[in-house]
Design brief:
Blueprint: H1 4-14, H2 19-25, E1 29-31, E2 37-39, H3 41-51, H4 86-91, E3 100-105, E4 108-113
Antiparallel strand pairs: 1-2, 3-4
Helix pairs in contact: 1-3
Length: 119
């Protein structure tokens, strides 16, 4: 089973193949008791997310400084600032100087990377 940068490279190399072929080509296959093939989609997608720097719980993912769990909740500070902590920007691979366009909605704020199109 491919992991990390090898997995990302293989997914990019294969391009527009079917999901089953993608999972199979990356080695996420096991055998059932009757000898037929079983595709391990969940393990594949978890490995893909981890390779991209995200984690779905367990294994220490989603922790911030000092091993605290990320709450995914931000609170407006007394001075009116809304702080997004380093652990969150690290998960997204953001660097100092990265710029965002701020889009305001009804009770929501969207940050869109400068020059990117809104989804």
């Amino acid at each position: 089973m491919l992991l990390g940068s090898d997995l990302l490279a293989k997914v990019k190399e294969l391009g527009d193949v079917s999901k089953s072929d993608l999972v199979r080509s990356c080695g996420y296959v096991s055998s059932k008791k009757d000898g037929t093939e079983r595709l391990n989609f969940t393990a594949f997608y978890e490995a893909l997310l981890e390779a991209k720097g995200l984690s779905l719980g367990g294994g220490g993912g989603g922790t911030g400084k000092g091993g605290r769990k990320l709450s995914y909740v931000a609170t407006v500070q007394g001075n009116g600032n809304l702080l997004v902590g380093k652990a969150y920007t690290a998960l997204l691979g953001l660097q100092p100087g990265d710029e965002f366009e701020i889009k305001l909605g009804r009770k929501q704020i969207k940050l869109i990377p400068a020059g990117a199109e809104e989804e």
